[in-house]
Amino acid sequence: MATVPVYCICRLPYDVTQFMIECDACKDWFHGSCVGVDEDEAPDIDVYHCPNCEKTDGKSTSKSSGDIRAVQNGSQVFIKELRSRTFPSSEDIVVKLNGSQLTMDYLEEVGFNEPILVLKKDGLGMSMPAPTFYINDVEKHVGPDVGVDVIDVTKQTDSKMKLKDFVDYYYSTNRKKVLNIINLEFSDKRMDSIVESPQIVRRLSWVENYWPDDALLGKPKVTKYCLIGVKDSYRDFHIECGGASVWYHVLKGEKIFFLIKPTSANLSLYERWRSSANHTEMFFADQVDKCYKCTLKQGQTLFIPSGWINAVLTPVDTLAFSGHFVHNLSVEMQMRAYEVEKRLKVNCLTPFPNFETACWYVGRHLLERFKGLHKSNKQPAAYLVHGAKIINGAFRAWTKKQALLEHEDELPENMKPTQLIKDLAKEIRISEVRLSPAQRHLALSLPALYCTDVFYWPGTSTLCMTQVIFLTIVYRQIISLIIHCITIPVGQKLTFTKLTVPLNSLENSRK
């Protein structure tokens, strides 16, 4: 019986359905999928050398320029090179916490500006399927005929496929392509009942807390994603749509994240890189100062803050869950990332639909919250006031005459934008003229010159006393003026104590 010829590094017989390319050195034939060459790229190759011949005869060259053939991000050659590279450890930028430590109080105190890694899900208030749950169970709980977006990793392109067809591919022994599912959102499927996002995410999420259940426009489906990746799956560098933060939990397998800080310089470089026609042939990490490598192992959970530029490599077959959320702790970065997204006009596989609508609902919530606090003579947290200013600034931009047509579809029903902008601005001003506890402590701990005045707050029946406090900061020889308005109920007896101290005495007292 005659021996069937075999080809390529996979040493399989010729398959008429697969594209192959001949090596100009050894004259052997190779499957494009095995050596990272797309069929539509072949006409541009002048001299092709297979991976083995590259070592002795040099790399392939292109007809157009004679340069070394560019490596496509996601190709097998690229993945091999990526695995061999070294990156700064994420220990420098990732905060490690226990699940019970990740609370609202913690985030309000230290902020959410760096990735957070939780080694065990205990204390996160998160529900996950049993360890025996796998890909065929996903099909049962979501439905075999559900359409999913699948990334062809080698080409970094996406296509539609039924979930049952992807499951067949996943369990096949001869995968001819590297395919990856990153956006199977299942919040309206049966699997929703066995997966619950971390409690801190539910506490922070604009969508879950401020989007009305009875709104004509349904809530964005961004809270629960199932991620199914085979070995060597790769998603190139990106910023989450809407500047959303994201959580990941690996149920089985492992994921490697390449993380880049969202500095102004890095965001500008990212926008320029993403706008380039050949960005899929340029590894973005080479253009920035530092890119950190973070490995997320089975059973671990990672929280990535707003704006962080990241790529993801799946080194082994992996099943993971994730979700996107926008929140009050990162309003400025969310808005900046959203503006970058709009300028790039990139179709995102994990979009955050109606981001502006969410902002309008949040603006209305902050208005009522500020009113309630001010009525009780309490002060909103500084990050809330700052976020409200950013949001109100966006409202003004979106409602300008020349911009309204572009943004009016995002305006919720029964919303009065002009009045909301005006009222929110008023509450922000009230918050800003009041001293924080830290400022009050500073004022009382230093010698001061008090000048008092009494007046009615405009439009109210509240009597106010203004204290103008002159402080001398000796080391810089700067005199700061701080104005503090203390509201006092009408009818309360006021006793003023006037203290006069020469400014030179203040200076001498600090020497």
UniProtKB/TrEMBL annotation:
Family from the record: Belongs to the JHDM1 histone demethylase family. JHDM1D subfamily.
Localization, UniProt: Chromosome, Centromere, Kinetochore; Nucleus, Nucleolus
Domain (JmjC): residue spans on this chain: 186-342
Gene Ontology molecular functions: dioxygenase activity; zinc ion binding
Coiled-coil regions listed: none
SMART domains, per the entry: JmjC, PHD
Protein name per its UniProtKB record: Lysine-specific demethylase PHF2
Organism for this UniProt entry: Salmo trutta
Functional note: Lysine demethylase that demethylates both histones and non-histone proteins. Mediates demethylation of dimethylated 'Lys-9' of histone H3 (H3K9me2). Recruited to trimethylated 'Lys-4' of histone H3 (H3K4me3) at rDNA promoters and promotes expression of rDNA.
A single GO BP: chromatin organization
GO cellular component, one term: kinetochore
Pfam families linked: JHD, JmjC, PHD
Domain of life: Eukaryota
Keywords: Activator, Centromere, Chromatin regulator, Chromosome, Dioxygenase, Iron, Kinetochore, Metal-binding, Nucleus, Oxidoreductase, Phosphoprotein, Transcription, Transcription regulation, Zinc, Zinc-finger
Domain PHD-type, residue spans: 5-56
PANTHER family xrefs: PHD/F-BOX CONTAINING PROTEIN (PTHR23123)
Major location category of this protein: nucleus
Bilayer-crossing regions: none
Cross-referenced SUPFAM superfamilies: Clavaminate synthase-like, FYVE/PHD zinc finger
